[in-house]
Amino acid sequence: MSSYTVFGPSQQGPTQQGPKRKRMKGERQTPTGNGNSDGENVSRPSSSSDEKFKQGSKVKSTQCNSDHGVSYLLNLRATYPLYSEAPRRRAHTECSERCRMMEETEATVQMYHKTVHSPLMVPLLLGYAREVKRIGKGRAKRDCIFYVTPCGVLVKDLAALDSYLIRVRSSIPITYFSFETTVNVARHFLIRRTQMKGKKPSVINVGPPFEIPAFDCFGGTTPTPFVYINRMMKSAAVGQRLEADAIKKRSEWCGCADGVCGSSGEGDCLCMRIHEGGGSFEYGLLSEPQSYLVECCEACSCSSVCRYRVSTNQIPWKVLLYYYPKKGWGVRSTCDIPKGAFVGLYLGQLLSETEVERNDRPDTYFFTLQDLDAGAPLNATANGDQSLGLDTTVADDRLLSLDANKFGNFTRFFNHSCEPNCFAQVMYRDYVHPLVYSMGFFTRKNIKAGEEMTWDYNYKIDSVLGRKIDCHCGAAKCRKRLL
Length: 483
Fold this sequence. Notes:
Mean pLDDT: 76
Structural class: alpha/beta
Helix content: 10-25%
Number of strands: 23
Distance between the termini: 12 Å
């Protein structure tokens, strides 16, 4: 991992007003939402706060000047093409495939996913409405999220939504929906070009059509070059050792023909049987760390909307890289991300212990995969989460390490925090072995657009003789030392 010390999220400063969108000739100025839903429900007329939203399609930023960014609300109607402006209501006693919009196909979902700033926008473009309603009486009143389906059914929670999506054989993954009241699907964060001092941001090519921009608003530096990969690589030495130890990829996969694992009974799915002893997703979300997870892999027969396909789907959230003077490059979300969402795998080249100990190899951007059969697979941090840290006390020639120095993805830039908003999770995917597995990152709380994404490195203080790194994360419970 990065050797930079870290400081915490910026303090709130003066608000900024985003630029107003000019209305094109002949374009109708129509309401896009209601006062409660912050413009997310396109089927209902406006309130006073809505009037402000529809005119400028931007709201005041919550970022301070030192962060060079601005958060605003996208005008759904003006930004993206709509297949349907509002849920259509029809008389029916039971939902079926007829309730799904004809335009809702897997290809359409993938096309929108490549276009929108947040996957949570996709259902709203395919006939769903997301509403915020206040329920209860007196002091017990609280806001709740409801979805209205294309056929007019009111859905109140993930369980009801899951049942509906299976009945209509929807092509929209359940992770594209969120019932979190503090998550605003219209919120978008960007770095203004005026903050770049005449310099263009560098771009990391993830593969068409995705690109990750990198902004240094202080000096114009760029990230150290590396090869962006979308799956784990193995060195030649590791490949030979896995073959010698008969550690092979999964040769058995689930054959759930209905497309969603577990929908016809947990005992019928091979992947769910492997789950025994480990943790499990809850409708595609993971609220807290588990001992391990088993995920459907690319060879499984289930569809892309399966609840146990999380990391095997396309990049879920769009991010940008931002340079911090005291800690180097970090990752910031460009949209709101709900709690429990998968944000990415830690990818790199799998190296043996001998390769890791080479004198010419930097000691950054890597961690050791501990033996899951040797006890606790991950070190527990002070806040109760489990995060994988660099093992500096145990020497074991059997252990392998993920090195993201030359090959990796955006998660290599995740910085440390003593009170992080993400956690690391052991995941069995292509391999189901205590020495070979994947590491995924999930959100431990709701993340707002523009917020930096961090996790706890969990280094042991004074574990490396003669090396000391102070922590400047700024958290209330900061441990003051990183190493």
